[in-house]
Amino acid sequence: MKELLNFMQKRFIVHISCFIGILLLLAGISCKDRLSDEKRKILIIQSFEPEYIGYKNSEEKIDHEFHKQNIKADIKTFYLDCDSYLEKDELLRMYGFLDTIAGWAPEAILVYDDQATYSLMACQHPVVKQIPVVFAGVNFPNWKLLKQYPNITGFWDKPEYLKTIHFIEVLFGPRRLHFWTDNTYLGHQATLSLLKDLHTVGIDKIGSSSYVLEENGSFYFKSDSIKTNTKVMFQEPTKMEYSLINSRESSANGLLWALSGLGRYSNFVQCKWDFSAQRLGLLASSPTCTVINEGFGLGHGILGGYITPIEEQYKSSVKAVSNILKGKKRQGTPVVEASKFYMADWKELERWHIPLNKLPEDCRIINMPFAERYKTHLIILGCILATSIIVVILSLLRLYRRENKNKQQAQESLKKGERFLSLALAGGRVFAFQLKNNYFYFDNDFYSVAGLEPKPLSIDKYISYLLPEDAQKVLHNVDRAHRGLLQKNISQTRCNFNGKGYQWWEYRYTYNIEENIFSGLCLNIQQVKEAEQELIDARRKAEESDKMKSTFLANMSHEIRTPLNAIVGFSNIIVSEEVELNVEEKQEFIKLINSNCELLLKLINDILDLSRIESGHMDFTFASINLTDLINDIYHTHQLLMPKQVELIKETPETPAIIETDHCRLTQVITNFINNAAKFTKEGFIKIGYSYKTGDSSVSIFIEDTGIGIPEKQQKAVFERFNKLNEFAQGTGLGLAICQVIVKRFGGEIGLRSEEGKGSCFTIDLPVRQENK
């Protein structure tokens, strides 16, 4: 048994090592092949309407393939809805869409199916020749148009009629095959492709008529073979027979005859996809197969055929366009045939009671339930698990019997060692204890240290010595142990054994569920706790000091930036030889420089006095000021400092307001609001001004912007100190808090109106002088 345990332990270590190695390897591959942060703009054009069930999760599938190619794709999808438009309207629709998407500037186009591919080339939009285009799912490429576009490549989904005929013959034997087509361009191409395939194997008749293939790519029948043969044929055919059904011209009688099943031993073959074929597989009374992937696997009653899976279509097209985006060279128009496979739908196999062993060996099955697909694997896995469980149970039983024999000897040895353990622990002020039968038994030394009478303590008595919240934890742990959820634990509780106050004690114990006994050690850790708290307090004070220092330095840079910019800007204009200024303009600029120098000096003094803000003290110099003049000064200072595409607007009343305030402090507040607005306004305007009417007791200064706005949930926190709504924006988060302190000192209030995405408006309501009333 010992050798078996050692062997299992070694195998466990080997498995863990392999697992860690695999994780490291995957991490390395992930780092090496991580996606580029740059998104590539990809336009996807689909032929049918967006509600077409085949497009479900198509964008996610294509995006997943781009991720496999290590490309982040920004995908836009256009649905041509070809069945709803005639050719001229369809081309105009395609051209108009390409006009609207030109400004987005896609880097590549993925186009799927014949209709969308043809319309993209035939609309003659100039953008089609400017960027790479990859098509897929095209059964009948327009080779003449392709020669005009050297930048277009793709995958030719050539219909394989002979392979699909073989698929049907393997499943059902000789059958009468009705090929579902029509007289449209695609229908004509589908019929031509069928006749060419039949011609290669020596079949020169279809239905009751022979056909003729001409060199120019056309064909004709010597008699009308398009009509459905309504002759009752009850006998099983000895070889494959073929007929065409024109879905747009067949007579009602012939069409219903073909669908009814009265013509026995028949199958439909879907040659092209349109509105007439959507219900073909559901209406037909015998299995319907296909040579194209449209409609397959979507609940339209299509059994299968030799086709290109839609996943393979997405995979190959995305890989091709990814290679182009990565710089792969292209020569000519390297159109290649798409990969094809025998495909079958599990639901249709069940519907027609077709056994799996009749399918071709290499046939792929979709929509197959997990339990069916992996039935053999699940059976083998179940057997392995059952065997493993039996082996583990037998091993545990053997181990249990062995351990049970040694249990009594171990208990006897434990009792002998208890005396020696008590002696050893006494010197370290560590005390042993047990909890059994709802009574605590401690070492004798414990009672003298705790100031208790040396006798066992009932659990209720012991609980009465504990802090109530700690008492609940102790009872909870005892309950968990009784329920088998806790075998060992370390807990710290506050106990008041001698009535002199609570002290911290630590208990380390294990629980023997068989004997219902808690055994462990306890010691007084009050001094340790006090030392820990002192360290925590010291660390907190150090962190707060460091944070205040950092925020102080950052705030100083934030507050002095605007006046410095004004001083440097106007100074550069005055000394610049490229700008001609008259005397009045120079005097005005000099005046603004001087005023900003004074403001800068004042701001520095304020920053150095930030410690006074915390204690509620701040020096103010109140004087009567003309609010219109102050707004004009601020406007001229910031007019040239606005970001591009942002206009600074001022709005003042005709009658100026005279208020009693600190000029520099109020300038500081308004400047702070303008700077904050400039940070978060990319275009539009920032408006400063105030509203006042003669007789009003207060004046309302406003700073309005068309920026990003502030979410409603965050508006209450904007005036909190060190709070920043955008951690990446410049500033310390002290600006608005300082503004609020200053405005309250003025006897005013700050207001905020904001709507996310539309902008914000901060208002400052201040009292006016009595003589203005």
Strand order of the largest sheet: 10-6-11-12-13-15-16
Tally the beta strands.
29
Largest sheet: 7 strands, mixed
Number of separate helices: 22
| Structural domains: how many | 4
Give the helix level as a range of percent: 40-55%
Describe the structure.
This protein has 773 residues and is an alpha/beta fold. It has four domains: 39-156, Rossmann fold; 161-306 and 340-372, no CATH class; 427-523, Beta-Lactamase (2-Layer Sandwich), CATH 3.30.450.20; 599-772, Heat Shock Protein 90 (2-Layer Sandwich). Helices cover 44% and strands 21% of the residues. It is built from 22 helices and 29 strands. Strands 10-6-11-12-13-15-16 form a seven-stranded mixed β-sheet. Strands 2-1-3-4-5-14 form a six-stranded parallel β-sheet, with helices on both faces. Helix 2 (58-68) packs across helix 10 (310-325). The termini are far apart. Residues 1-5, 31-35 and 225-232 have low confidence and may be disordered.
Set down the secondary structure blueprint.
Blueprint: H1 2-32, E1 39-46, H2 58-68, E2 72-79, H3 87-101, E3 108-112, H4 114-122, E4 133-138, H5 143-146, E5 152-156, H6 161-172, E6 176-181, H7 185-200, E7 205-206, E8 209-213, E9 219-221, E10 241-246, H8 252-260, E11 266-270, H9 280-283, E12 288-290, E13 302-307, H10 310-325, E14 336-337, E15 341-345, H11 346-351, E16 364-366, H12 370-373, H13 375-426, E17 431-436, E18 439-442, H14 444-450, E19 457-458, H15 459-464, H16 468-482, E20 488-495, E21 503-512, E22 517-524, H17 526-575, H18 583-608, H19 610-615, E23 623-626, H20 627-639, E24 646-651, E25 658-661, H21 663-679, E26 684-691, E27 698-705, H22 735-745, E28 749-755, E29 759-767
